[in-house]
Write the structure tokens for this entry.
Amino acid sequence: MTEPTTMPVRRSGALNMHVRLDERGIDLELHVHPGEVVALLGANGAGKTTMLSLISGLLRPDTGRISLDENVLVDVDRRVWVPAHQRAVVLLAQQALLFPHLTAAANVAFGPRSKGVSRKGAKAEAARWLAAVDATEFAERRPVQLSGGQAQRIAIARALAADPALLLLDEPMAALDVAGAPALRQLLRKVLRQTGRTALLVTHDLVDALSLADRVIVLDAGRIVEDGPTRTVLTHPRSPFAARIAGVNLVTGLSDSHGLLTSDGTRVHGIVDPTCLAGQRAVAVFSPAAVAVHLTPPTGSPRNQIAITLTELEPRGELIRIHAAGTLGGTDGLIADITAAAAADLDLVPGKPVYYAVKATEVKIYPSRQR
């Protein structure tokens, strides 16, 4: 039996940043604790990759300050600028970007060698990290001889062999196939947990956030609009993007004692969180499974009714997901999950007008952090 590989633990990596980059509309304030793994979510163009570029030294902010542990990386007022290669920060991108002329072992040894470690010491360090990512057998292969998943394993080993205080992961599973992504995700989880490494993870995948991150941040238009424990953000989303990635419906408005009042005057009935204050910005959230679909306006217990037009029927296992046009208080794209039999009985086709109905007991209303 193979002995488990011991990975060095690094209990540093406290990140503090407050910067602006006017050209891209970026205004970010972020604090990350040592050993914390933070997932960065947001639509394309929200500022996720720009945030990583500012931290890693690929972009200069117009104003602000970034520090890592006790080291100031950027301070615009004091004209402090630490070059990227001196920041103790490693960026792992979608592509492995290994040096094509070096073997896997030599790629991993590159970081220690660049820090002045002896050839023998760097070789031993490379062997340790290759073992840690279950890639010892690929040590003498060159990148062209590796699959995408194997190359990413080597890239992770190379990143960690450089002993970064902060690891930046920019959708590291995005370029992998369906079989390779889960294995790499499991590897990253093991590595991050066992080494206590501080990391920021850009992802569009709910599974990545749930399996890897302690905390989730949602960016929108260059600003942080949600920040909290992973489970809290993904089960009680307060922004449209977080709702979409969590697979729930979200409607915005102002809270009152009866529910939520949307911008067009529509009232959404639901269970109001005790922390909601009258007139405060709030969100109403409900699951697609809580939505019933009717051909005519429903009567009886459902208190929320929405006239919509079907745009797409999406098979999802034993269910059909209904996508719709037609808004509830300015919120478009509401979804419903119904059985295939129910869809057939209703003769649902794109373009057909129907009604959504949601019981008030299925709608949760709580304060929004949206600006």
